[in-house]
Design goal:
single chain, alpha+beta, TIM Barrel, Trefoil (Acidic Fibroblast Growth Factor, subunit A), Immunoglobulin-like, 4 domains, 6-stranded mixed sheet, 6-stranded antiparallel sheet, Ig-like_fold, BXL, hydrolase, Exo-alpha-(1->6)-L-arabinopyranosidase, alpha-L-arabinofuranosidase activity
Length: about 950
Amino acid sequence: MKGRKRRRFTVLLAPVMLVGLGATAPAHAEAPLPFRDPSLPVDRRVDDLLDRLTLDEKISLLHQYQPAIPRLGIQSFRTGAEALHGVAWLGETTVFPQAVGLASTWDPALMERVGSAVGDEARGFQHARPAGWGLNLWAPVANLLRDPRWGRNEEGYSEDPRLTGALSTAYGKGLTGGDPDHLKTAPTLKHYLANNNEWHRTTTSSDLRPRVAKEYDEAAFKPAIEADAATGVMSSYNLVNGRPATVNPDLNDVVRSWTDRDLFNVSDAFAPGNIPGDQRYYPTLAEGDAAALKAGLDSFTDNNDDSGVTIRAIDSALDQGLLAESDIDEAASHALSVRVRLGEFDPGGGRYGSIDKSVINSPAHRRLAREAATEGAVLLKNQAGALPLKKSAKDVAVVGPLSDILYTDWYSGTLPYAVTPADGIAAKLGRPVTTSEGVDRITLRDAATGSYVTAGTGTAGGPLKAGATPGEAARFDVSDWGAGVVTLRSAANNRYVGYNGSAFVNDQVQPGGWYVQQQFKLEKQADGTHLLRYAGYETEEPWWSNPVYLGPTDADGTLGLVEKDRAAHYTKDVVRDGVAEAVAAVKGKDTAVVVVGSNPSINGREAHDRTDMSLAPAQEALVRAVRKANPHTVVVVENSYPTTLGALQQEVPALLWTSHAGQETGNALADLLYGDANPSGRLTQTWYRSESDLPSILDYDIIKSDRTYQYFKGRPLYPFGHGLSYTTFRYGDLKRVGDGYEVRVTNTGRRAGDEVVQLYVHQRVSRDKQPLKQLKAFEKVSLKPGETRTVRLPLTARDLAHWDVTRSRWVTEGGTYDVMVGSSATDLRARTAWTVRGETIPPRDPARTTRAENFDDYSGVRLVDESKVRGTAVGASADGAWLKFADTRLGAGTDALTARLAGAPGTVEVRLGSPDGPLAGTAHFSGTSSPYTYETVTAELAGVERGRADVYLVLSGGVRLSTFSIR
């Protein structure tokens, strides 16, 4: 374990100075205690404070809510304020674009400025030290956007580890202030490791073969830790190779090896309780918490603010001998290190202690939010110069479900104001614009009784009831968000209908909350009527056993949840045709702007993956109708993830994508649509044509399953790195200069613009399967019309290394590498070849003990936990599962297999050349009572000729293989 080495010294006995944040000592005061002396090294201050604490006090520091210690003048501290794209959950704050939108800027310098602004606002909120004070921020998210169906796609940066590492490092540096000994805030990278599915997210295991772990998932987390741009990681909910991430020994063995700085690692919320809970990994919380501490976790986020459960578990672990006081000291010291570096014990709160609430939503931050929203938008298509629009064409209609509203996501702050697309365009033109949401307004009449579904009036709304008349209280605007899910907004008060646990009430400003209870499905029946199904959710698994519908439940006609056979059958009458209204709005206009996309609380968010990647059918129909009514139509897609878009991308002349980009969305879009800003955003993940292009969301092996732009062999809708501009760029020749490459880039158009110059490599020949191309460097450059810039992109032989499974280390193979530069992963403008002097990976030596996980190929196996503490083994899911160990040198006299096996009784066959090749021998295994109890088995081999061959181990179902050798 790479932890901090405590320096022991004699504690100076002095009166305790009750110097809190912002307090100053009187002139006659004695010297402060060492832990309050900012002139001393951090380690000495931490050790001094740790030595003054009792065991109980140290244990109290291991929970998210660290209590005050009055006898030392120490105030309470809370880990974990959310800050993905602004400070969340504390009130009005500057709301920047979602993380995926920030990343689409491909601009580390801008990311650092945004991070710095968010750090300032976190300080501003915490200046007066409110209850739950803490500057340990849970951001950024370094999880890779491996699968666009992931519900939390909006929280990440990219499908590429190099880009993710660069952007998370920049954002983290902004949050920290750049000096690891004097922190503005203490950012924590989420969520370690391989956390990319929400479906059963606490019980599914992410299988990471060593190459995928090293080259892909770990590679996204390492840069920020290595650069001191993060102060720790949050362990994820999922299992990794069969072991809960909360007890993953990587927290010590890997993450702490990336830096000499102290790290403070935290658990995800309620994750410790999952260990004896739904994960059933350890039988008691005491055993689970002890294992987590031993693995490198320092803080337990569990049971909300009730630290007593954790404290009792730690006390029990100490009593049972599962932990020693030294384990408590280690974890507590990491917590104290962060607090010392945050300036908590410094006079006046340290370097950043004077930052107050005046920074929150300051004019400078509002300008930065607009800049970020502008740079993060991506021009996907621009045919025949459809964009930019002409300001002289002022008769404009802005229509669509997102045309005049801004939505926020779960980790968003509260918008201090909202500039909608319609607002922004109206302000740009200096005149009002015609708007239409383009959604139907309907009534629902009970086919059996003739009564109407009615809602309450006033801002508080009221329960849905059966009413007699079809007035405003009986009218609802129906928005289609895809996958059959709609929302109902009452015309009586413009509030959304949601379930509150006992009734359906029209009292919600927007769909949202942890349990998004404003979701419905209108299910058409054979007789033409509709059932109104409640599609909200309470937990990951519905609390009801069958789908539930709306129907009368009380004598007064109040509607509640009923079984399908008791559901009311409604006649749906359209009072206002949304498409017809939008068509009327755009007819004869100089320009029609259609804004479509997603609601970030529906069909894809934390705890819920997307099952449908397409645009909502009603929105697609709206775009087609508007385009038919007005050929001067451009489309803005505002959502949190790639969308398949169907045929629309062929039918409309211009497509502009933006994330849910915060308070300045409308101004940014107006600047881009009218050419006051030149689009410069680039996609950070592949946009696929269909879900059929993707394997299971639970398949984490990007190499074997050909995932992401690195390995995908199909034709994407839009490639990684794609983004158009209103100007054009010419690339010169690519030349090797020093430790990198140079290329001259010229703006050949009439507008100033930004180009993101992207450098990719491809290894022509390798022992191992290599990416088709891999991003190695990038730079965003601003060029005036006609200007030429020499862009230098670093690339060393070390950057070409991949993980050698035969020797478990990084290796740069000698050979020829294609070096390519261009505007996207498929738009490559210049290339050259680089002959690199490197290693040749030797044949496998089967006489050495080989870990089974270091295979070259496989079928029918899962990666599993070798023991509950550490190590990975291979488990056969069914008979005939196999592992390939390529290019193995077999010597004369090779006559025996030795293998370490656990689990069910079975066999291991040694075959040569293929899984059904010649059989060299079979090891028989009688099984063990525990999957963690391994036994050594042997088998005689015959017919093995001297030379090099691919060796296959064929396993029977239920067998676990940890290591083997062939001699």
